[in-house]
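[agent] plan:
  1. take the single chain provided in the ticket
  2. run structure prediction with default settings
  3. attach structure tokens to the ticket
  4. add a short note for the reviewer (M.T.)
[agent] executing step 1
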Amino acid sequence: MAFRPLFLKRAALPMAAVVTAAATTVAYPRNALHAESPPSDTHNIRYRKPIYDDPRPTKQQPRSPPSSSLPSPSNRTPNTWSSSNQTPSEILISRLAPRIRRARFFVHDYTAAAEDRLNSALTSFFRLENNFTDTIASLAPAPSTGEQLLPGSLYVLVAAMAGTIITRNRNILLRGSMPVALGVGAGWIVLPYTMRNVSDLIWGWEKRVPFVAENHLRARSAVIEGGKVARQAGREIGVGVERLMGDMRKGVEGWVGQGR
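[agent] step 2 finished; step 3 output follows
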């Protein structure tokens, strides 16, 4: 009898658990509860998309487009079919690709033309430089002649300066022609081979202009004829002077002989 209160307490705990479970089973709703509006019928519950799973395909009634909005399959071109299946980025790329291609070709052609012009200009410059150096080298006398340019050119320069000094108080024609004449004459005397090369070079340039070449030939022939006439006159003057001197010597000798 002393353990009866303790036994009653232990028996009351299982009975309370059984009563609570029965009440929960009766009172707990069997349908899912929603915060918006609890439906009364389970068939009318809307399908809610899960967060992590793929959405279930929903059946939709296909809508037939109007006949005037889309062309018939026979009238559709390949571009229409391809553009309808492309994304906006692919359409943009397909439109920009021809323009970029034309721009690249234009830049390439322009660059190639500029490069060709630059190459031709450099080639012309190098050809001109080679011609200039070859021309200067051809004016120099051969080593076998023994002609030296350094002292000879100084002599020619001194002769030209002497002509300038001589004609400093004369008219402009003499002041311009006398230094050139003295310099050219000194060059033919001191540097004959170099002056010959220079004259051949000038004659080659004059051949390109027939009018100048003809005038040069006429002037040269006139100078040569004048030189011949001057030499002939000099010889005649020399002969006359010698004859006069001989007559004077004979007269003096006769006068001296008569005086004796």
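[agent] step 4 note for reviewer: The two ends are 219 Å apart (CA to CA).
[agent] ticket updated
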